[in-house]
Amino acid sequence: MRYAMLIFGDDREWTGLSPADEQDVMTGVYEWFERWQPTGRIADGGAELQPRETARTVRAGTDGRPVVTDGPYLELKEVIGAVVILECDDLDEATRIAATWPLAAGMSAVEVRPVMSRE
Prior knowledge:
Radius of gyration: 16 Å
Oligomer: single chain
Distance between the termini: 12 Å
Strand content: 25-35%
Largest sheet: 4 strands, antiparallel
Strand order of the largest sheet: 2-5-1-6
Structural class: alpha+beta
Helix content: 25-40%
CATH superfamily: Dimeric alpha+beta barrel
Number of strands: 6
Shape: flat
């Protein structure tokens, strides 16, 4: 079964890192991928997202037509900064793998959710 690993954090912390500190964090992330990719548990290498200022949100207006706003819809301290798709036997295994993610500045939590399948 597939599970989404949603990596949350304050992207303002991330963009405030020095280049050397950012490289240290990324080294930990690359090491995490090197650990788990050979096991076949990473179904999709994932995607790192641009900062919240680059986002647009589309939602229904009062008349039902789409309304587009800049940035995330809610003012949140933490936003999703990256997504990785895991292939695991169950939620417990996906959670054990997610618990090894190298949390650092700008990455304060990892949420694991089963990916919906409509087959």
